[in-house]
Each structure stands twice: as C-alpha cells, then as structure tokens.
Amino acid sequence: MTASSQTSTDTAAPIDLVIFGGAGDLSVRKLLPALYMAHLHHSLPDVARIHVLGRQPWDATAFQVFLHDKVRGFIAPDSLDDAAWQGFVERLGYVCLDATQAADFAHLGQALRPGSDRIYYLATAPTLFTAICGHLAGAGLIDARARVVLEKPLGHDLASARAINDEVGRHFSEQQTFRIDHYLGKETVQNMMVLRFGNTIFEPLWRSPYIKSVQITVAESVGVGSRAGFYDGTGALRDMVQNHLLQLLCIVAMEPPVSLDPDAVRDEKLKVLRSLRPMTLADVARDTVRGQYTAGALNGDKAVGYLQEANVPPDSGTETFVALRAHINNWRWANVPIFLRTGKRMAERRSEIVVEFAELPYTLFPDTPRQPVNRLLIRLQPEEHVQLQMMAKEPGSGMRLRQVSLDLDLESAFSTRRAEAYERLLIDVIKGRLTHFMRRDELEAAWTWVEPILDGWKNLNERPRPYVAGSWGPAASSALMARENSAWTEET
C-alpha cells in the first residue's frame, strides 16, 4: 500500500473517536490529556468528537466531575486554559458500556453520528480485544473507513498474539489496524530516522567493524504501583523488551528504506527482527539476566521490595529487570553485541541508545593511560538530546587527551512546541498514517524471538536475581557487559 492510498480524513466527514476503557488509568493519564493538548493547539479536527466508554453508571454531572477531578490533574498547569478546556469538554460524551455485553453496543451505536469516520481505541486488557471487535461488528458499527487502535501488550506469547490478530483481522483489515507503541511517537525516536538517513557523516561508520557495541536502556524509577495485578502475570520481558526495546533496536539497525511509505519502513524493521539470532537454552543461561527489586531508597525516600507491593504474591518469580545480549545475523551487524536493559525501581528514570564505536588499533598518545572510546548517545527521556563523545587535547604542554562532547539539545534547538508521544500518534491515527505503528508480521516476529527466552527461563527454573531499589540492577548485568570489554554508561 502506498502512502497516497491510505485512508484520508481530510474531508469534512465527522470523526467519532471511541475510547474503550475510557475511565481507566491509561485514558486518564495519557489519552484524554493528549487529546486536550491536540485540541488546545488546533491539531484535533473540528469535526472530531470523543466518546468515553466505561462501566460506571455516570450521568452528565458525574462525568464532568470525573473530567475535572481526574483528567485535569494530568495536564501541565501552564497548558490549562479555561476557555480551551470548556471547548474540549463540549467535544466529549460518556457512554455506560460493559465491553463483554453485546446488548450494550446498541447504546454506543446511538451515540455515534451517521456517516462518521470511526476510530475505536481499545485501552483495555488484551483479553477483551476479540470480544469488543466481535460486538462492534455484530452491532453494525464497522465499515471500510473504521479503524481500531490496539494497546500493548498484544498477547502473552506468540500463540495468543496470533489468535488476537486473527480475530481482530476478521473485522478490520491490516490497513485499518493500528498497533500502538508510544515509544515510536517520541520526537527523538522519530529523529533517529533523520539522524541516520538525513546525514552523510554516520552511514559509512554505521556497521561492523566500526561499531563495537550498541546498548539500549529503558530504566524506570517507579515500582509497579497500582499495576501489580497486571504486571505480575507479565514481567519486564513481555512488558518492555518484546515491544519498546525491540522497536528501538529496529530503528537503530534497519537498512535505509526505499521511501517513507509506511510499508517500506516497516519492511526494513521486519528484516531486523527476522535477523535476530535465536537464543538456545545455553544462550539464555549465559546472555540474559533477570532481576527483582528488593527494599531500598530513591532520592532519600524508602521503597518497598517487589514482594511487599500490594497484590503481589509473596513467592512471585516475576522479573522486574531484564538485561540481555543479542546479535543480528547480517553483514552490517555481524559480531556486534547488542545490549538491551530495562527495569523498575532503578536509580533514575532514563531511556537512551548508546552507539559505542570501535577502539583505535594503536594509540599515539601514551600520556593518556586509558583511551575512552567514541560514543553517540541518544537520550530519549527525561530530556531529549543527542551527544557525540570524542577526544580532544587538554590545554597545556604535552599531548594528554580528554573526552569532550558535542551536544544537540533538541528542546532548545527548536522553538516550536514538541507534542508528546500519545498526542502525535493519536493525530497519526486520525490522519490514517501507519508508519509509526506495528504491522502484524513485525509483532509476530518479535514474539518469535522472545518466546525461546521465556521458555529458557522456565526450563532453567531460577529465581530472578535480587537488586536493591535505587540501584542499576543486579551485578550480573555489569558482568554481561564486561565480557565484551564494555560497560553501561553510568559505569564509565
């Protein structure tokens, strides 16, 4: 499918955006605030109306209280404008609906406008996806212009992911299906495409043997909080690696696409996923580290251990930390180790990509006992910047070197407002732009690679390694890097 053949919403047709799970945590914290920001900055089409669905028997007054007391609290104070808020609220409607009850979908049908372009955002547990799609079809609420947005994690393993895709695919074509990963909406992640394919300086070196290693970190300082019921049956590998980290890896490692057509970009990402070297049981034992946080402290505040969190079984073996070494079996990345790391209750909130270039074959500067390597550091959060670390001579006589940085602060380099990830992706859905959403074969290729790791952990039957809340994870993750004569950035 070419970009020009995508469904367009540039006409005056009304747009009905329906949020299943609209009173839930994701909607309150992310979706509704993002839609408000789009409304405030005039990127949400005037013809768009938002239908919030939930099981609470709210009348109009109760819904207004919910919006004021819950949603407003997740909007930056300097973005709150009373007139804009009131205009946004007027776009919203509430429908009491139990997604498991087919009869309730008649109420939704009455709320939707005739002839509207309909977008169904499934901010619910994945176990409800197939029932919702089936009930929408049964109520006659799906046509060729309708779209569905699926939140992660899509499935628990390869078989369940395929089952969900099959059922959703009975009612929505692949071009109507938007599998969302909010990391792909981050400005810096999208800038990776420009960094790699809009500049000539990196491409000749973006390969083996000029790159020594790549490390991708998504570290969270928070614990599981209120998500323990979901998280304990999921774990860090399913929750973060299978989607967020592998998608970041695809953008780092992909070949130049022939165009920016959505399928051209996603074809190249798929090749990366299919080129990942499958892990044997021996690989899993050697090249993966599972961890689980214990009691500690962050920023001077005490933090309980995972097993002491509410709704976590006292004997849970769920991992809250994963570090692993991967390899890509192609010419560009042959023999370049790829390190992936994610965890909760880590020392700080940080998401970054670090490309470590090869060491010099011989040094001319013996006055510098250790030659730091060149690195390209791409920080995704909390701040967004790109930093090239290189060597320079220290002032004075002699030739002693010191590492210095060339910095591009993306927040200060551009004066225009930077939309948050969900805001950007929601507008992409409305405009029918599929580039930054996962295709079915991408999702299933990711599960194909991850599933042997899950099976390997089950066969090894080892508990996750403990790490203190507020640290950078188990010591074994540092040893994983040390075997390749490398180190995580905070250890250098």
Question: Would you write up a description of this structure?
Answer:
With 492 residues, this protein is α/β, with parallel strands linked by helices. The protein folds into two domains: 3-179, NAD(P)-binding Rossmann-like Domain (Rossmann fold); 184-491, Dihydrodipicolinate Reductase, domain 2 (2-Layer Sandwich). It has helices at residues 25-40, 60-71, 82-91, 105-111, 129-138, 158-169, 187-197, 228-231, 235-253, 262-275, 281-287, 410-413, 421-431, 440-460, 475-482; strands at residues 15-20, 48-54, 92-96, 117-122, 147-150, 177-179, 211-219, 288-294, 296-298, 301-303, 321-326, 338-343, 350-357, 375-381, 385-393, 401-409, 465-468. The chain has a nine-stranded mixed β-sheet with strand order 16-15-14-13-7-12-11-8-17, sandwiched between helices. It has a six-stranded parallel β-sheet with strand order 3-2-1-4-5-6. Helix 9 crosses helix 10 (262-275). The protein is globular and about 80 Å long. It starts with 14 loop residues before the first strand and ends in a 10-residue tail after the last helix.
